Amino acid sequence: MESTVVDKIIKEIEGHAPKAHAEHVGTVTAVGDGVVAIDGLSKAVMGEVVEFEEGKGKKLSDAMEASGKLYGLVLNLEEDGVRATILGDSARVADGMTVKSTGTILSIPSGEELLGRVVNALGEPQDGKGPFKNTTMMPIERQAAGVIDRKSVSVPLQTGIVSIDAMIPIGRGQRELIIGDRGTGKTTIAIDTIINQRNEPEGKRPICVYVAVGQKESKTARIVEQLRQENALSYTIIVDAPASAPAALQFLAPFAGAAIAEYFMDKGRDCLVIYDDLSKQAVAYRQLSLLLRRPPGREAYPGDIFYLHSRLLERACRLSDAKGGGSITALPIIETQDGDVSGYIPTNVISITDGQIFLVTDLFNKGVRPAIDVGISVSRVGSSAQTKAMKSVAGGIKLGLAQFRDLEAFMQFAQDLDKTTADQIAAGQRMVEILKQKNGAPYPVEEQVVILYAANAKFFGNVPTREVTKAAGMLAQYMKDNHGAALSEIKEKGVVSDDVKIALGTGMEEFRLAHKELFTENA
């Protein structure tokens, strides 16, 4: 019996052919502030993921064992080794630890399952709703589409904010910068734009990705709850890298948002990505770069800070029909210091984007909200990103408001004004009131057209200035309730036909008779 067992063992040993496989490994020589220096890994490539082998020569706590594998991202290739940033808890890394090359570039999951979810910069769920089951891995860094693979921007992306859709239109595939001091309503514009997408038909509604970089977790939680209450969370993905997250994750979060959106763009769908905000990403990248011992340049930012933002924002585009016709519209947010748009990061991002919406503290404090400075704000796509209906009613608004701002400054010193100037100032004041909007209350495009059509017809000329905002909202609601067919035609055909003009004229007269208290003779 024994000989039989021994014979079997001998036979198995003789038949065993060990398979040798090479592993590319290195050793941690220094660690600090989330960055490690690694000796070896001579074949590592930029942006490669490396795995820390914690079990070798080091007893892990139960909590660390349960927290899974720990990875790093190679960011510096040096003569005597590499430097990498730790994607996780840096307390788990120690000198002498073995590091293994994975041979893969950093990728994150994307797909339909992510809709309505909150993830971190590595695509891991953060909302307690469990792991994802069926996703596609997307590279976090990808070369932007070339010129031949793109087509011009001509389909509007409606923000629901009258002053933007009328004067600074945004098209699908555009990059429009939202810039201003702290507390001037930058995030509000972005969130209202997400909420307004619920007015789009199901098949044409853009997928929205909101990337929160370096924000308070309470602010992000409030935004998630607002989107849920407004029924906008079902088509939105939140990528969260809060102020408490390591600098590496704050640096990666915008790229993660772009990668998630590219999955949908490749499927021929439209996406809207909001980067809130890139000034904090730049600070995180500066921190990483200094720890990686890269030489500092202007304002202590590294020399490749322009390349950081340009390679991110160039991924926003509208693909040609041959490539599926999908698009990514980017709304990056930049925070200025005391209105200084000539700073290093603001000028960089202004030069990369297709226009900017500049928000001013003075207007915000006067109650003009959104506090958009019409003079410095611009869209380089222009009226090609507007419907014919909006073009027909929004023509001279920007010029009229700019002239009003000049007259308003002059009015402070003038004693007597001639009637023409006084009328122009009164009209400008009413237009400012018409363009005011509450937070979280975007107007569908057909209601915007109604309001601006009435403004051009001087319908609000006998309404006291302080009541104009209220009257405009009431008119839009009245037309929606009583002349829905005319509004539907504006929405579906994108034009203000003669029949629609007759319906609008009738509706405005009915509204005037129904609300006589709003119209006074000597307004």
> Could you tell me the number of beta strands?
16
Q: What does the oligomeric state look like here? A: single chain
CATH superfamily of the largest domain: P-loop containing nucleotide triphosphate hydrolases
Query: Strand order within the widest sheet?
Result: 8-12-11-13-14-10-15-16
Helix content: 25-40%
First CA to last CA: what distance?
A: 113 Å
The description of the largest β-sheet is: 8 strands, mixed
CATH architecture of the largest domain: 3-Layer(aba) Sandwich
| Backbone structural class | alpha/beta
Alpha plus pi helix count: 17
* CATH class call of the largest domain: Alpha Beta
Global geometry: elongated
The count of domains is 3
Mean pLDDT: 91
Give the uncertain stretches in residue-range form. 57-66
Question: Please, could you describe this protein's structure?
Answer:
Strand 1 and strand 2 (35-40) form a beta hairpin. Residues 57-66 have low confidence and may be disordered. The relative contact order is 0.11. By secondary structure, the chain is α/β, with parallel strands linked by helices. The chain has helices spanning 2-15, 62-66, 162-167, 186-196, 217-229, 247-266, 278-291, 305-313, 344-352, 361-366, 388-394, 397-411, 419-434, 445-456, 468-482, 484-493, 498-514, and strands spanning 25-32, 35-40, 48-53, 70-78, 81-87, 98-105, 107-110, 118-119, 136-139, 177-180, 207-213, 236-241, 270-276, 327-335, 355-359, 378-379. The protein folds into 3 domains: 25-105, Beta Barrel (Elongation Factor Tu (Ef-tu), domain 3), CATH 2.40.30.20; 151-386, P-loop containing nucleotide triphosphate hydrolases (Rossmann fold, 3-Layer(aba) Sandwich); 392-518, Lysin, CATH 1.20.150. It has 17 helices and 16 strands. The strands form 3 sheets. It has an 8-stranded mixed β-sheet with strand order 8-12-11-13-14-10-15-16, sandwiched between helices. A 6-stranded antiparallel β-barrel has the order 1-2-5-4-3-6.
